[in-house]
Structure formats: C-alpha cells, structure tokens
Description:
Layout (H helix, E strand, L loop, with lengths): L13 H6 L6 H5 L5 E2 L19 E2 L9 E3 L2 E2 L21 E7 L13 E6 L7 E10 L9 H5 L7 E17 L3 E22 L14 E3 L12 E3 L3 E24 L5 E14 L12 E5 L2 E10 L5 E18 L16 E4 L4 E3 L5 E18 L3 E19 L4 E6 L2 E7 L4 E21 L2 E15 L4 E2 L4 E6 L2 E5 L3 E2 L24
Parallel strand pairs: 3-6, 17-21
Antiparallel strand pairs: 1-2, 3-4, 5-6, 7-8, 8-9, 9-12, 10-11, 12-13, 13-14, 13-15, 14-16, 15-16, 16-19, 17-18, 19-20, 20-23, 21-22, 23-24, 25-28, 26-27
Amino acid sequence: MDIQATTQRRALTSELLNELPTGRSFQNVAILVPGVQMPLLYSDVGGSDGARWQTMKVHGSRDDQMPLLMNGMPFNNMNNSGGGYNHTLAINTGTVQEMTVTTSGSTSETKVSGVVANTVAKEGANRFSFYFYSDFSNSDLQSDNLNDDLRARGLQSVDHIKQLTEVNPTMGGPIVKDTLWFYIGYRYLRTTKYLANSYLAKNPFTDVYCNKPAGCLYGYPTLGIPIGGTTLVADTRDLSKQDFSGDTFHHTYTGNLTWQVDKKNKANFFYHLGRRNLLGDSSVTTAPEAATYLYSAPDYLAQGSWTNPFTSKLLFEGGFTFFNETWWSLQKPGMGIPIGSGPGFPVYRLEASSGTAYGASFVNIRAYSHQYNMRFATNYVTGSHAFKFGIQDMWGTRNFGYEQNNSQIQVFFNGVPLSLSQYTYPYVDTQHLKMALGLFAQDRWTVNRFTFNLGVRFDRHNAYVPEQETRRTGRTFRLASAWRGTFGGTGRRWPGSTTGITSPANRWPRPRRTTR
Length: 516
C-alpha cells in the first residue's frame, strides 16, 4: 500500500492478458482500466480489429488530449497542433517491456488531464533471448446468430473474420558484454473482416442506389410531385460479393540499442518503422464505392535518450525524438473508380431515403506530418524531499492536401435530385507548431506522517497557419453555339466558391487545380 500518494496503481500481468479475449494493442490494454472509455466502432475481441487506432477518454476528458509516449517522450502526430490523435503508427507489441496507462493523479510533468499512455521498450541483456508470437483465425473458426427471421427483415449477412494472421518474432542480447546490447523485432499483421450487409455494387458507376432485395420505387410521384412516373429500381448490390475491410498489408520493424558509456552514463537509441495498407469500412449506410483506403508510406520514429546518476541523490536525464507520419486516404482500390474531375469521374452521392453514401469517396487526403520533441530533467532526492525539475518542448509541421471528385456532393431522395453542394477542392492546408514549451517543478515532501505532493507548471504554446492562397483560373465553356464565355473566381486565404448555370453541353465543368 502506498501511503505517500493519492493515486491507485494496478498491474495487469502478461499471464492475465493472455487469458483475456483482447487484442495486443495498447488501446486494448487501456480499456481494461476502470473509467477509460473509447468509441464502440472498433471495440476489439481477440484482436479481430488488429491495430485500428482508437482515442480514449476518462472522467469527461477530451479524446484529443491523449499523449502517446514512447520511453517518456511523445510521438503524437501534429493534428491539433501536436495534441495528436488518429495516427497510423502501430506499436510492435513484442518489443514492449511494459505499458503504463495514467488516468488521474498526474504530476506537473504531464501537461493535459486526459489519458496518458506510456510504452517502455525492451532492452537487451548479457544473455541472448528469443520471443515468438503467432496467431491465426478465419471465418471457418467463427459462428454467428444469423437466421431466416433476420434475413426476412433485411439483414443478409453479419460481421465475421475473413483472415486474422499475426507473426511477431523478437530477439535481444549483447554486442559487447557489459557495454553494448541490442533488441530487435518484426511484426506482420493481417486483419480483414467481412462487413454486415455491405456488398459491392453490380455497377459502381450507377446513378441511383438501392439496397433492398425487393427493389426500390423511385421517381417524383413518390414525393407527391406530379412529374413523370415511378420506376422500380433493382437492388444495386451484388449479394455474392460481400465487402471487407482491415489491414491487408502491415509490417513493423523495431530496433533498440543500449550503450553503457561508462559507470554513470547510459545512452539508448530506439528506431521504429511501420508500413501499412488499411481498407476503410463500408457499412449499411456507406457503400464500398464511397469507402476509403489508407496507405502509409511509411511512418517512422527515431529516439535517443540518456541518463546519468551523478551522485546517490542526483540524477540527470534527457532525450530527443523525431516522428514522421505520411499517409494517403484515397479511393478504395479494385473498383476502377478514378480520382479527379470531369464528365467521366463519379462523385460522392447520398440517397437520403436510406441514408446511403455511394458513387465515390467523400474526399481524398494526402497527409504529411512530422514533429520533433525534447526533454531534460533533474531529480534530487533527500531523506524527506524528492525534487524534480524539467523542461519539455515540441515543434513540427502538419501539411494536408484535399481533393474531391468534381468538388461536389449530390443528394437524392428516392432517386430524385434534392441538392448539390459545390466545394473549392483541391486545396492544401498547412500548419506549423513553433513551440509547445513546458517548464515544471515538483516535490514529494514527507513530514512525519504527512506527505505533500507539490507541483507547478508553465506552458507556452505557439502555433500558426502561414498565409496560403487559393488560385482558381478561369475556364472557357460553351454557353451557346454562336458564342463563348469565360467564368472564373479567385479566393485568397479562404477557399472560395463558384456557382454558375451551364448548358447541357457543359453540364460538368472541369475545375482547375487549386492550391491553398
């Protein structure tokens, strides 16, 4: 029992984790802590969702205030100026010594009040050690409760595993005994699953969408508008081709080098590289043609740290981290749907009667994010005091490019055009974090039977969006057979919009490329 702190500590042993039907990511470990919450979208059972990213909250905290630490230093991406969430890097579980999840009672060393997850990497030792983990599953090893009654109500299929494969070998040992050690690991992960009631379309370029086996009655009269007639549209889906999502390609490589420079100085060099392809989820309300595909190319984390127990009472420690994240969220492959603008490019459409998106993905994103961070701390421990003073800083850049087919969204109701939204894609969004400086001092002071946990922290956050321009040039198009006209617009700093009336010969004007 700790009678000098108000925090409560609980340890989950590896034996217990092996018995629980949970995945091997830190999110699946954190959700076992009382009070921690995360969305139900990727609630994992037995690792069936692999390394899907999840944000977590506790006691009403914000999910973007969730520092991810490797050996005590953050590897968040630059979303929200370094707040970090939804990144694509997955930890190599086999090279992890321990994971610590802090939900409350944090010291002044922590700048936010949300969930703090810290991963400590394994280090080599004077004897060689080997570790190997593997698992496998598929739909033949899974049951479901789908019956004729549910099929009659419209549920044609349920979620079930397509393939679950993981191979995770690691090893460590000495390079120079008592001086230099290594620990390396590799992880291959493939986790794909079929999606409930989600099927590929017979024709991915269909103008109207129906997801009912008996067909859909479309037309103006179904809305009480006496124009034209009604049409029975057949089920758009091919019920023999159920859609699936998940990691189709996921490889991570990890290396950790530990150097005992002398009796007091110890250095650690850590490197992690990850590369993955992730098929986004379709659903009852998102047709596979509107789903996305994430491609990382690649993500890597480089880190160096140092410790020096200068005396029996004085300890110095410091470190530096570089994290690079590059990913593209594009049109789901294998369907022949192109990305761009023009008459032959399908657009994102919504059938409002069923709430189903189809046609093409909402927006294609190319994301480039990198950040640097450092820390330095001094620990001084006496009989009644345990002082710690430190400095932390982070800086980096977030650069996102957005593109949407024909820069528009079309909404239909029972196959009848309802609305059209026009956007100024493509554009680029760049943000810079100049400084996320933190200075802290804390002390655990013991007086007789009383213990005072004291701390103070100063933070300075400096981020900005540089001046960016949206350049849109004019386009010449035919208004009538006898004359031609030009129509264009230019926006500065903010994306502009252009609305015009075109003739049938120029129904889908192709916008010029835009930079913001």
